[in-house]
């Protein structure tokens, strides 16, 4: 795979693509921002309670999100961030109540905050992403969503785009089927397989470092990185073969 940046007039040849596998949060909907706020509130409240000289309890920032949490399954994000600060908690169980101080308890706490915002504010898809979905539907390319989030079906429904995808591999599907989360390629490979398309003919579209790594670890035709804050260079360095700032740039004849 070679690396390119979208330039005016150079869009992928979508008619030769077997399928497109989209990440959701930050690619189709601006919900990465909702996740970021919910994680920040939860982690900073938690860090304020940590009394351990060996732990780094300085403020959790967006840089922590991009480095340790973005794109990963919920509890992997908690575990990886805590490890970066020298903090280890018991795992807990998936149905821990959100008050318990465990990896799962903290993840559940954040999930309550995320769902509160989703219910209160709703969500609109990125207009540029809808333009690309429209184009791909018009030329008949099979589409899947491959998201680490267990909330993906609720977000797709709230954004009014659920019916555009033949397959959704979300955090719950991955847990049920025992699929390792991003940065492992397994959820993307499962998306292609469920659409009945060889992965080598499928394109991955991602905004997170863990996600472009997942794409690069599979044998996909292309890994497109969309920069929503991670940075074009970082996306490239981690395996994106093509980078852009908005999916409208990938629509033939669209804004470049
Ligand atoms: O907690 P959820 O909704 O299952 O989501 C897990 C992760 O899903 C990813 O899609 C998001 O990029 C992350 O921010 C989020 O933490």
TrEMBL record:
| GO MF annotations in UniProt | beta-phosphoglucomutase activity; hydrolase activity; metal ion binding
Q: Which domain of life is it from?
A: Bacteria
- Keyword Cell division appears in the UniProt entry: no
EC annotation from Swiss-Prot or TrEMBL: 5.4.2.6
Reactions catalysed:
beta-D-glucose 1-phosphate = beta-D-glucose 6-phosphate
- Please provide the record's keywords in A-Z order: Carbohydrate metabolism, Hydrolase, Isomerase, Magnesium, Metal-binding, Phosphoprotein
What top-level class of enzyme does the UniProt entry assign? isomerase
Q: Which cofactor does it need?
A: Mg(2+)
Which Pfam families does the entry mention? Hydrolase (PF00702)
Belongs to which family?
Belongs to the HAD-like hydrolase superfamily. CbbY/CbbZ/Gph/YieH family.
Q: What is this protein called?
A: Beta-phosphoglucomutase
Organism annotation = Nocardioides bruguierae
